Hints:
This protein is α/β, with parallel strands linked by helices. It contains 5 helices and 13 strands. Strands 4-5-8-9-11-10 form a 6-stranded mixed β-sheet. Strands 3-2-1-12-13 form a 5-stranded mixed β-sheet, with no helix packed on it. A two-stranded parallel ribbon has the order 6-7.
Amino acid sequence: xRIIAVTDIHGKANKVRELLEHLKGQEFDLILIAGDITHxxxxxxxxxxxxxxxxxxKSFYAVMGNCDGRDVLELLEELNIGLHGKRVEFNGVGITGxxxxxxxxFSTIWEFSEEEIWEIxxxxxxxxxxxxSHVPPKxxxxxKTFVGTHAxxxxxxxxxxxxxxxLVICGHIHEGTGIDKIGETMIVNPGPLxxxxxxxxxxxxxxxxxxxIVLERFP
Length: 219
């Protein structure tokens, strides 16, 4: 199964159109969006982005980011693509979602305590699931800010250490673009689509294992 992973669109519909034009004719199965669809926008702003994916015709799921309006989650649910606090199966692969972020110094729209993050993950996860999370796990290559601090979630990291999901797709920290590993878990922050970043992931649905991750960028 081939997954296109994107995150941190921040309302840039032009970048979504460029990505989808770039992907035309390419073979893949699923698009996963790890939040910050808008830049502090509501459902109208989010729909302007999501309709591009809807019109493209490929299956996709999304979680909201900490910069998405309170009504964006409602829109994701209405469109039947929302994964926050939920689990779906696609091609026999479970995907568990968690949107928003851990607590930040900036009092953004969707923030959860570490206890809430832990509860959401443990309530929905089944062995072998992919995790789609806006926030990255703490103390990794993918949660390091430009000033050098690690801004990820302690609970997500602990969950990964204990459960060893095969793959975690995240975002949130734009400068944390990259790939890391905790035990057997592959973690990818594709980088902000608002700047042309995305990732291509090949996942073995029978073995529940990542075969390859490639970080991509278009102009």
